[in-house]
C-alpha cells in the first residue's frame, strides 16, 4: 500500500488518496417511484414501487404504492417510473479471463479466417513492444474452415515473434513456430495425459494444442504482472456491471487471482460479488486453510469451492463421449482423470467442507461424475450441493440421476444456441436426447443454475435469458426452437439467473432476489423483461447497476477513477496486457 501511495504524484494525488481512503457510506434510503419486479422464493413475480435500504446496504422493505413513505431518510432518489429488477447473477464465468481477453487480441467476433488474419496483423502492428502476441476467441467452426488453423499461417502473419491464441472455449490454443521454439516443442514432443498435440502428415506439430497439451506452450508465455492483473480485473468488472451482473461465480480461481481480488477489495475497488471456486485442492487449502473462507467485504468475496475438470469441449473434440464422434471415427474425446483420481480429489476437498464443481461436457464425463457423487454421498453427508458444470451432453438414461443427492446442473443457455449445429455434426441426431436438456433436468428434480461461461460466450445475461425460454439464437432460428421440448418458461429462466445461481454458491440468504434482509443489488433497465419479445429482451439496455444500495454503474456516467500506479506497466510504459 505504501508503495502505491508513494508512486502517486502530481495534482491527481490528493483525489486518488481520497478515493483510496473512502469507505462505503451506507444510509437509510429510499429508491422511489420504480416499476419494480422481483421473484419470491418460489419463483413468483412480486411487484413494488419503492425500495427501502438500510445502513448495511440491505433491503428493509419493498413498498407498494399504497404504503406510506418514511419522513426521515438520509437520502432518497426518484427513478421516475423506470424498471427495477434484481441484479443478474452469472453462475459460471472466468473473471480474469474476461479482463485479459478485453485487453488482448480478441478474435471472438471474427466471422471468417481472412477477417481473423487481418485482425492479427493489425494487433501485432499496434503492439510492437510486446514480447509475445497473446489473445484468443478463435473458432474454426464459425469461420467455416473445416480444419484447425496451423503454425505456418501464423508465421506468415507475424514472423519471428511468438504468438499464442486460445480457442474460444479455452480448450485448445494456436501457436506459431516462434512460440513452439520458445517452449521447446519438436516432432519428438509427446501428448500429455488429457491432452493432444495436433500433428501434420509429416509428424511435425501443426501448431494447435488441445486441453492439457496447452500447458506445454503456455508455460513459456510471460506471466502477467500484478499491474496487468489489476487492469484485467478492473476491465472485467466494468464489463460485468455494464451488463447488469452484480454477482458471479468465478470458476478456476488461482492464488494470483485471489490475491488480485483481495488487493482490489482492500483498496475499495471491488464492486461485483465474487463466489470463487479454486483451480485446485491445493489452492483452496492455501486460501481457506481448514475450509471455505467466510464472506468478506460485506458479502462481496468468498472462496467456497473447488473447480475440477473431467474432459474438454465439443468444439475441439475433447468432450469425453461414450461412443466415437460421428464426424471423427475412433475419437471419443479426452478423459482428464481416472475414477480413482477424481474420487481422491473430491474427497480431499469435501473433507474440509469445500463445495465441488466438476466440469463435464460429454456423456461419458457426466456419467463418471454422477458415479463419483453416488459414492461420495455415502461418506459426506449434509448439504453438499454437488455441481456439474455445463452438463451439455448427457446420456438420456443418466438424466434421472441428476435429481439425486442434491446435484446442481450449472448450465449455459448460450452454449445451446451457439453449439447446436456443431452438436448435431459431432454426435448425430440419434444421440441428442440428453443434449442441453434443461426441462428434463427440472423434470428430474435437479436444480439448474444459469450462466454464460464468459469469456467463451458473451456475458450479457439478457441474451441468455431469451435463449432459455426460446431455444433460439439472436437470428430467431431455428423456427420454434431447437428441441423446443427442453425450453423453460420465462420466469424459470429468470430464476436460474438469479435465485438459483445464488443458491448454487450457498448465497441464497444474501442475494439473488429483493426481499427484507437481502442485499440491495438491483439494476435499472430500459424495458420490462417480463413482457417484451425475445428479440427485444436481447436488446435490453442496463441504465444503472446498484450493489449493496450503492450505484456502481451509470450508462453515460464517469467510471471510477483508478490511480495509474495500479495498472500502468512501468516497463512497457503502455496499457497493460498479457
Automatic annotation (TrEMBL):
Domain Amidohydrolase per the UniProt entry, residue ranges: 77-553
Signal peptide positions on this chain: 1-27
Region Disordered: start-end pairs: 557-578
Pfam families: Amidohydro_3
Comp. bias regions, Basic and acidic residues: 557-571
UniProt keywords, alphabetically: Signal
Matches recorded under SUPFAM superfamilies: Composite domain of metallo-dependent hydrolases (SSF51338), Metallo-dependent hydrolases (SSF51556)
PANTHER family named among the record's database cross-references: IMIDAZOLONEPROPIONASE, PROTEIN LONG AFTER FAR-RED 3
Protein name: Amidohydrolase family protein
